Amino acid sequence: MWTLEEFYLELQEREGLNPLPLVAAWAPQHIDAIIKTISGAFANANLKNTIVPIKSGSTNQSIGNQIASFVVTQLNPRLEAFEIDDCSGYGYPDKMLRQLASGSVFPFEVKATSQWNPSDSNRRVLTSSSRKLRDRFRDPINHLLVTILYRQSADEYRVDGIRLDFLEPSTSVNIRLEASVNHKILHDGAHRNATIR
């Protein structure tokens, strides 16, 4: 088992980069402030048991994305001293949490699940590139994984709660080495190819 800190160091080395610190330990006061503001916003928005509108014919992944987007949209205007911004561009994180007074910015990754089970070992992919973190965030970088918990009955999806995971450098992660290609690599590759039209 690797730690998140070990992963980011190895990832940057594989990317041919001079490694930067991409994960830092959370300050207790930041954790307390974030829990307080998200709890307050959740209560003020009356999100518990709220039905989330889902587009007909949505896939499971799309349903999760719609629920996550709905909850973030409801929370954001009710946050005290923080705001959730989009983190545009490809890859992790999709969002960032900004502390208004200090200007501190935290990677804010939002997932959704209908079956939170502490024994579940299914993968939840966090990140596969260091580029966005290196471009958008500065040390210390504190990562927040937000899981929207929801219930489904028939075609109704109701918000059940929010789980906040304040990831630390020592947080255990699974790593799966992946290989990918693109059109340029395939075009320039030293392998045989054929195009049939």
The appropriate CATH architecture is: 3-Layer(aba) Sandwich
Q: N-to-C terminal Cα separation, in Å?
A: 47 Å
Q: Compute the number of strand runs.
A: 7
Number of helices: 5
CATH class: Alpha Beta
Low-confidence stretches: none
Structural class: alpha+beta
Average pLDDT taken over every residue? 93
Approximately how much helix is present in the residues? 25-40%
CATH fold call: ECO RV Endonuclease, Chain A
General form: globular
Largest sheet features: 5 strands, mixed
Q: What order do the strands of the largest sheet run in, or round the barrel if closed?
A: 2-3-4-5-6
Query: What is the count of distinct domains?
Result: 1
Helix and strand element order: EHHHEEEHEEEH
Describe this structure in words.
With 197 residues, the chain is an alpha+beta fold. It has a single domain, classed as ECO RV Endonuclease, Chain A (3-Layer(aba) Sandwich), CATH 3.40.600. The chain has 5 helices and 7 strands; from the N terminus they run βαααβββαβββα. The chain has helices at residues 4-14, 28-44, 60-75, 131-136, 183-188; strands spanning 2-3, 82-86, 95-99, 105-113, 143-153, 156-167, 172-173. The strands form 2 sheets. It has a 5-stranded mixed beta sheet. A hairpin with an 8-residue loop joins strand 2 and strand 3 (95-99). The longest helix is centred in the N-terminal third of the chain and has 17 residues, at 28-44. The mean pLDDT is 93.
Short description:
This protein has 197 residues and is of the alpha+beta class.
